[in-house]
Amino acid sequence: MSGYVLEAQRLKKIYREGDVTVEAVRDVSLAVKGGETVAVMGPSGSGKTTLLSMLGCILKPTSGDVWIEGHRIDWEKDLSSVRRNAIGFVFQSFNLFSALTVEENVEVALNLRGIRGRGAKQKARDMLKRVGLENRQDFLPRDLSGGQKQRVSIARALVHHPPIILADEPTGNLDSKTGHAIIELIRRFAVDENRTVVVVTHDSRIADTVDTVYHLEDGVLRP
Questions:
Q1: In angstroms, how far is CA 120 from the centroid of its own chain?
Q2: How much of the chain is in helix, strand and coil states, percent to nearest 5?
């Protein structure tokens, strides 16, 4: 066992369309421990989302390996259970269900894991309190600010206690102050609960909030 919760070893992703070949991610290696928050920064088109999709077992790499809690990912298997149980995803666009209340949006994540009824409701309420939304549980997403929507997204991602949190441009739709508060919130969960966090972003303003910063440009990862 390496002691790392999430590892990538020489990841490569090549897209081919006709005679055109694009190497979106080039030989990337990364290792993150529990309690650590890592930011991967780079401009649009640098390969950040492609890298995060491979780390999250959504996108199969052309070559290379991903290890989660010491287990190498077998890309030939159905990885839905890995994504469902080991990883919490936070997105720029929030991805909330507009017809569901704040509490119901969080409960959905538990329902997918077989937790329903009163137990799911209490877990959702507890998590909403932790992200500072205990007074917004009956609101619809349309009645929330951008920062509040992202807090709901974080609560939904964390309510099942995954060891890994992957965040794709989580501050992209937020102002500077709110974005900084969101990253601080995610990092606090990492430290308090020994979770592993990888944030991909082009927002250099959050650099002082995370433990380690990497730069990705033209698919190449550098310190």
A1: 22
A2: 35, 30, 35
Residues 6 or more apart in contact with residue 11 via CB below 8 angstroms: 25, 27, 28, 29, 51, 54, 61, 63, 64, 65, 66
CATH code for position 60: 3.40.50.300
Q: Is the pTM higher than 0.85? A: yes
- Cβ atoms < 10 Å from Cβ of 220: 15
Query: Domain tally for the chain?
Result: 1
Compute CA distances 101 → 90, 96, 136, 188, 192, whole Å.
Answer: 18, 9, 9, 25, 28
* Structural domain for 68, as ranges: 6-222
CA–CA distance, 11 with 66 (Å, rounded to integer): 8
Residue 198 lies in a domain: yes
- Helix (H, G, I), strand (E, B), or coil: what is residue 148? helix
Regions in the chain scoring below 50 on pLDDT: 1
Tell me whether residue 212 is exposed, middle or buried, using C-beta atoms within 10 angstroms of its C-beta: 0 to 12, 13 to 18, 19 or more: middle
Residue 1 confidence (pLDDT): 46
Helix axes 102-111, 146-158, angle to 10 degrees: 20
| pLDDT tens figures, 36-92 | 999 999 988 899 999 999 999 999 999 999 999 999 999 999 999 999 999 999 988
Q: Is residue 143 part of a domain?
A: yes
160 DSSP 8-state letter: T
Is 1 part of a structural domain of the chain?
A: no
Q: What is the DSSP letter of 206?
A: G
Q: Is residue 64 part of a domain?
A: yes
